[in-house]
Design goal:
By secondary structure, this protein is mainly alpha-helical. Strand 1 and strand 2 form a beta hairpin.
C-alpha cells in the first residue's frame, strides 16, 4: 500500500511464512519474518519501520505520516497499538482450538476495535480516513488486517466490526477497500479463506 501510494515501482516476491526460504533468512536474520523491503542491496525489516522508511525515502509523493507533530505522534501511537495488541490476538485466534477460548479472544478483539473507533475520530478529525482525506499511516497498518478479518469472519462465523459499536470503522473498511491505492493489493477474501484452509490441513 505504501509503495503504491508513493507510485514506486517494485517487484513483489511471495514467500511462505511457514516455509522460510534462503532470501528471507538472509535479509531478516534477527526475526526471520516477512515483510522485508530490499532497497538496492539493503534490507529494511518490520512493517512499521518499512512504512516510515518509504515515507522518508520517497518524500516527493503524498505524505504517509502527518506533518503536524502532534498528529504524527497520534498516528505512531495507534499504529503501534494495532501492531502490539491486535496482531497477537489475530495469531492467537488462528492457532486456538478451544471454542470458549476463541470467544474470549474475539471479545478482546472487539474491545480493541471500540478503542480504535475513538482513534478514528481523533486522528481522522471527521474525515474519511485515519489520515484525513487520504489514506495515511494508520490506514495502512490497520488496513493490512481487513482482508484477513473478512476471511476469518466467514470461516469462524464471527463479526469483528459492528455497526452499533464501531460504525465509523465499518464505513472506513468499505471506503478503504474501494480506494484505488488499496483495492488491488489486498488479497481477495476467497484467496485468504483458501490459505486458512491450507494452513489448517498442514497442522492436522
Amino acid at each position: 500500500m505504501a509503495l503504491k501510494l508513493k507510485a514506486v515501482e517494485y517487484e513483489f516476491v511471495e514467500t511462505d511464512p511457514y516455509n522460510k526460504n534462503e532470501l528471507l533468512l538472509k535479509t531478516n536474520p534477527v526475526h526471520k519474518k516477512i515483510p522485508v523491503l530490499i532497497h538496492g542491496d539493503r534490507p529494511v525489516c518490520e512493517s512499521l519501520v518499512i512504512i516510515q522508511y518509504i515515507d522518508d525515502v520517497w518524500g516527493d509523493g503524498p505524505s504517509i505520516l502527518p506533518s503536524d507533530p502532534y498528529q504524527r505522534s497520534l498516528a505512531r501511537f495507534w499504529a503501534a497499538y494495532v501492531d502490539d495488541k491486535l496482531l497477537p490476538l489475530f495469531k492467537e485466534l488462528k492457532e486456538e482450538k478451544d471454542k470458549d477460548a476463541k470467544k474470549g479472544i474475539i471479545k478482546k478483539m472487539s474491545e480493541n476495535f471500540i478503542l480504535l473507533e475513538d482513534a478514528f475520530v481523533s486522528c481522522g478529525e471527521g474525515k474519511g480516513f485515519f489520515g484525513g482525506d487520504e489514506v495515511g499511516y494508520v490506514d495502512i497498518v490497520l488496513g493490512c488486517f481487513v482482508g484477513s478479518m473478512r476471511a476469518i469472519e466467514i470461516v469462524m462465523d464471527v463479526k469483528f466490526l459492528d455497526k452499533n459499536t464501531s460504525p465509523g470503522l465499518v464505513a472506513w473498511a468499505e471506503r478503504l477497500c474501494a480506494d484505488s491505492i488499496v483495492k488491488d493489493v489486498i488479497p481477495t477474501t476467497q484467496k485468504l479463506i483458501d490459505f486458512i484452509a491450507a494452513r489448517a490441513q498442514q497442522k492436522a
